[in-house]
Amino acid sequence: MFSWLSEPFSHGFMQQAALAVILAACGCAALGVQVVLRRMAFMGDAMAHATLPGVVMGFVLGWNLLLGALAAALASALGIAWASRHRRVSEDSAIGILYTSMFALGIIVLHQVGSFSDLAHILFGNPMGVTGAELWVIGIVTAIVMATLALMRRELALTLIDPEFARSQGVSPFLMRAMVLVLCAGTVVIAMRVVGVILTAALIITPAASARLICTSILTTSLTAIGIAIIGALAGMVVAYHWDLSMGSSIVLAISVIFIILRIATAASGLRS
Fold this sequence. Notes:
273 residues; mainly alpha; ABC transporter involved in vitamin B12 uptake, BtuC
């Protein structure tokens, strides 16, 4: 059994892929707790689609595709934050407008390119194809996300629990929410290199939703979400390696199985029901 689990990681390319997956899982799961608690689950999927024009333009201009995606995601995050400041424009509406517009722009540019075969690893994910430069991008973004969440944990908690009290303490709920949007842009970019644009939201949302089933505090939820993301991601890689499956899809399904198991277990025990 141990050899079956360890065999995939005896190869150098799988070791680099595993490192990329672990880094991405940590960043996505940690931020996912904030996204889930703030009821912004739609944001992950929307942001992933909004990266398409950046990916395509990066391909056309010969840029690093992750940097192109990051530029598009940041532009979308700031655009959503700006549009939703108007009292008659809800955040859901701003998300819907921005992400559909960006996705439509990406489709138009993609149509001009004529083929997306060279972009398949971004659209569908391929951790085994992560380059050294992309690994650095994933590592840096993850470090920024984790450091920001740690340094701003008090402010984030205040605006989450009691926005009015946070304002009285000089902490702006809008700025904290905007910061979460910007961090979400970064995690979306690193997640899509691992599981692809289509499944990116799952790597952000599912571990956090799973952890919420068994945890109460933000800290324990975050740590548990990270653990679930890493275990599920590595399990998905092992299954994909032995059964010749899509690695990105296998990772998402493995994490989803953990959610289902925890949901059944908590229902049976009455824990946090």
